[in-house]
Design a protein that fits this description.
Length: 429
């Protein structure tokens, strides 16, 4: 309560801005996740790896726009060049088939091992279109998903917040237990027996659910169970494609039928894509009688196509990707060391890190459901408020996604701040 009260006192302009915003935005909000009581900080601007709020505070951004902001708030030179060249020589939305869409598509196919790919504007859309493809391809309706899974604003199956009311649950069957292969197999077999299993949609690491890595045996088991049932295995790589040069699916040898992509692959612009096996993607081939429609005004918009291509080809090369995620692993190890013997623990993989505060600090977190059941939100909140005071921006739920340009010195400062925080609050941690 003291930390929250200091927060309110220290941010009068953000508070006033929030009061203004609620008269045109419900709750002053247009991205649910960014609502942080008592009011959100209004971010005035970002530069490189830093954010600046309305009251003039400066934060080292360790949340990286929930993984979409991989390239920092300042476009790296190759992305800036691609953008300015496209603006000067190509023009904005052209309303026609373009060179840039083919170029970005062939790059994504090669990098992520896809036969075919199509673009959308968000990861949410990419998942909705992938699910529609699975349904059309199999002629079945139901898709198995996991509690704690997040596949978009209208495709969220919370393990911790109240269930989102905007998903038609009849179409989705939720398994209570990410990383629980037996349970998943049971549910898939039951739905298959009813003759209605179209696919399984899963993250290789539950991101929004708490940054919980999927175990290889679990994910491979899902793939086998899907194959056996003639269902489409959809791997949601919207958040995880950054973790390895060909995405987590290739790294783990998961051989998904369909993959969904998003976030940083638009080079900082709104982006989504879905792709995979040719015969499944063929349901969208407009040369075919009765093909599914997939028309989005901005699917091939100039900025995302050019920025995304430059970002992947010239900035986030396979070598950079490997080195960057190794840095993330080292950071997680150092944080774990700092948290040893306290109520704070860390999960994740590579450049994605989850911070958890639990009663005994050593419980294994295997699913978003575990996170929901075991987490001490009061301690998480205290950490969040005090990290803000120290100038570090992480997501309140305890989520971190490294930015490529963050330096070792900046990371050192954060590790030091965490250690000092735990020391300061030894009594309660
Ligand atoms: N899938 C996963 C795994 C995500 O993490 C997200 C976004 O956080 C989405 C899908 C939705 O992407 P978007 O926010 O672009 O709709």
């Amino acid at each position: 309560a003291a930390a929250e009260s200091r927060f309110a006192t220290n941010n009068p302009l953000s508070r006033a801005q929030h009061e203004l915003a609620i008269s045109s935005l419900p709750g002053g909000n247009t991205r649910t996740l960014l609502h942080t009581p008592p009011f959100p900080l209004t971010i005035a601007r970002g530069e490189e790896t830093y954010l600046y709020d309305l009251d003039g505070h400066k934060y080292l951004d360790l949340a990286g726009d929930l993984s979409a902001g991989l390239f920092s708030h300042t476009p790296p030179p190759p992305v800036l060049t691609a953008l300015t060249t496209a603006l000067a020589t190509v023009g904005l939305s052209l309303g026609g088939t373009t060179l840039a869409e083919q170029r970005h598509a062939s790059l994504l196919c090669a990098r992520f091992g896809l036969d075919r790919v199509r673009f959308a504007n968000t990861g949410t859309e990419a998942n909705l279109y992938a699910v529609a493809a699975a349904r059309r391809f199999t002629g079945k309706r139901k898709v198995v998903v996991f509690a704690g899974g997040y596949h978009g604003g209208v495709l969220s199956f919370p393990g911790r917040e109240a269930a989102a009311g905007n998903v038609d649950r009849g179409e989705y069957v939720v398994v209570e237990g990410y990383n629980d292969l037996e349970k998943a197999r049971e549910v898939m077999a039951r739905v298959a027996e009813e003759g209605d299993l179209a696919g399984v949609l899963v993250e290789g690491l539950q991101g929004a659910g708490g940054v919980i890595p999927g175990r290889e045996g679990f994910l491979k088991g899902l793939r086998s169970a899907a194959r056996k049932a003639g269902a489409v295995f959809i791997l949601d790589e919207v958040m995880t494609s950054r973790l390895a040069p060909g995405g987590l699916g290739q790294e783990m040898g998961l051989e998904p039928d369909l993959v969904t992509l998003g976030k940083y692959l638009g080079g900082g612009f709104a982006f989504g894509a879905f792709g995979g096996r040719e015969e499944v993607m063929a349901v969208y081939d407009p040369r075919r009688e009765g093909a599914l429609g997939h028309s989005g005004t901005f699917n091939n918009n100039t900025m995302a196509m050019h920025a995304g291509r430059a970002a992947l080809e010239e900035v986030y090369t396979p070598e950079v990707c490997v080195e960057f995620n190794a840095r993330g692993d080292r950071l997680r190890e150092r944080l774990a060391q700092a948290g040893k013997g306290t109520r704070m623990s860390f999960t994740g993989r590579g450049s994605l890190i989850g911070v958890h505060c639990t009663e005994d600090g050593t419980e294994e977190m295997l699913s978003g459901g575990d996170v929901a059941g075991k987490e001490r939100r009061d301690l998480n909140d205290l950490f969040w408020f005090e990290m803000l005071e120290d100038g570090f921006w992480i997501a309140r739920r305890g989520y971190m996604a490294l930015i490529l340009q963050t330096t070792d010195g900046e990371v050192d400062r954060f590790v030091d701040a965490v250690a000092k925080f735990l020391d300061r609050h030894r009594g309660i941690f």
